[in-house]
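Today's session is about reading a structure prediction critically. Students often jump straight to the picture, but the first step is always the sequence itself: look for stretches that repeat, for charged clusters, for runs of hydrophobic residues. Only then move on to the predicted structure, which in these notes is written as discrete structure tokens rather than atom positions. Here is the chain we will use throughout the hour.
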Amino acid sequence: MAKKVNNQVKNGNYHSYYKFREDEVRSQSLENGLLSLWTKVQKEFTDDESVTMHMLDIGCNEGYFTNEVHRILQKVTRRTCRTIGIDIDDVLCDRARINYAAIEFITGDVLEIAKSRGTKDVIEEHMQKLDIIKFDVVCCFSVLMYIHLNGGDEGLRAVLDYLCSKGKLLILELQSWKKYRDQARRLKRDGDESYPLFDGLEWKGGEGKLEGFIKNYIKEKGFDLLLESSEKNKFDRQLLYFKAR
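Below is the predicted structure for this chain, in token form.
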């Protein structure tokens, strides 16, 4: 009998994620990065500290790190920040709403939103309510791997296109090709299932090759890579900061 597929493994929407994923290094790295960049880029946003910043966090889970980013962004920029977190999982969004009332959490599948332009887009609906054309900051921490595994190269490019169209400053945390292979093995082990598009991926390769495909694509979309964090967290991941030209 085949094992029951665990969608948390397949999509990365792990419950109680932050009980086994410490984030102190990531938080400090994020703060260090924003501190080093903000004086260089703030004039391209506005010098007026009374103007509200708007941030979107893709794959917010139960909201813990979304709240950390929200806090750090306000501290560094000295501005009020309105933050939206989105996750594929209703249960996680419900937990987030209870614990972090200052942030708005919505449920949605960013891969499906990006692939289905013209259909229901809960992010765009909230942007219209906020009366904004773009978010000042769009974050995506350790989520793009799952989008890539489930959506293939085409799905990942669609999501990158979407993120580039929605944000002025992108903060991304990528995962290595080794993590992709580990994740494919884990899905096979836990659910006796494979990612159907995994073997056909063209964006792949160790020693930074996979990450290079993603970086170059974002640059081609009109963004400059301003900074790669010098330190990696305990899970061997760096933060990348891109700014629209």
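Discussion point for the tutorial: Residues 135 and 167 are 5 Å apart (CA to CA).
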